[in-house]
Amino acid sequence: MGYSPKLTFYVGVFAVQQAGRVANKIAIVTGAASGIGQACALRLGQEGAFVLATDIDPAGAEATAGLIAAAGGQASAHAHDVAEESAWQTLVGEAVAAHGGLDVLVNNAGIAIGGSIIEMSLVDWRRQQSINLDGVFLGVKHALPAMTDSGGGSIINISSVAGIKGAANLAAYNATKGGVRLFTKGVAIEAARKGWNVRVNSVHPGIIRTAIWDKANPEFWAEMEDEDAGGANRIELEEMAAVQAPLGRVGDPGDIAGGVLFLASDDSSYMTGTELIIDGGICA
């Protein structure tokens, strides 16, 4: 598509390889301003993809694109509300117009709203659904034709261990992430049987050190048996991981990015409709 990754440059721990595992691929990563989304964007850029880093926080998306560029990669930043269909139409159209197609989509943007299901407002239920589930649907809907026209591609939907196992006071979040899991499987089968050459898989992170824990509402922390967490989450996460994860530690966003890179690359060419669980053993 006319994009060639540069020679190796090092900035911090990131480097762009002359021939990376996703060289010449065009990738969209949503929720790329921080956490898992940022780690995925950086890793894909490191391995030779042109990354369209999107987020509802445009300054954060710009910062991520800047990190990729500083490491010798290529990226662009896009203000993007995943719950708006017109925003997806614009974004995918820009990718095709500027780069000739689309190869990878990482549907990462998401929020967590905890609380008793009998106390949760319909407004909060629908807000969480609109971002966590509707956003994934819209991304897949509009990325698939562009990928098919490009000769194929890989869609990676970020779900959660909460999409596999339930938890009290997280039923609404469970619903969104469980929906992503089965939606992924249904689309994967459809794409395969229609010969679209697009693979669709989900990734299920466990306890990962990201800002989502700081942003979670008090009801979420109450369920985690720490009503005084208040945003200083390092100790609380370590304690949670020590109890819940057999590996006994909190994961890093880079742990998820490694799995996403694998699914985006041709190394996973015979994988579709499956879930990649990266949780330190929680689901085991």
Write the layout of secondary structure elements.
Blueprint: E1 10-11, E2 14-15, E3 26-29, H1 35-46, E4 50-55, H2 58-70, E5 74-79, H3 85-99, E6 104-107, H4 122-149, E7 153-158, H5 171-193, E8 198-205, H6 212-215, H7 218-223, H8 234-244, H9 253-264, E9 275-278
Parallel strand pairs: 3-4, 3-6, 4-5, 6-7, 7-8, 8-9
Antiparallel strand pairs: 1-2
Helix pairs in contact: 1-2, 1-9, 3-4, 4-5
In which order are the strands of the major sheet placed?
Answer: 5-4-3-6-7-8-9
Q: What is the strand tally?
A: 9
Percent strand: 5-15%
Note the overall shape: globular
Order of SSEs: EEEHEHEHEHEHEHHHHE
> Fraction of residues in helices?
40-55%
Mean pLDDT: 89
Report Rg: 18 Å
Largest sheet: 7 strands, parallel
Number of helices: 9
Structural class: alpha/beta
Write up this protein.
With 284 residues, this protein is α/β, with parallel strands linked by helices. Helix content is 44%, strand content 15%. The chain is built from nine helices and nine strands. The strands form two sheets. It has a seven-stranded parallel sheet, sandwiched between helices. Helix 1 (35-46) runs parallel beside helix 2 (58-70), helix 1 crosses helix 9 and helix 4 packs parallel to helix 5. The relative contact order is 0.14.
Task: Explain briefly what this protein structure is.
The chain is 44% helix and 15% strand. It is of the alpha/beta class and 284 residues long.
Feature tags:
alpha/beta, seven-stranded parallel β-sheet, two-stranded antiparallel sheet, 9 helices, 9 strands, disordered N terminus
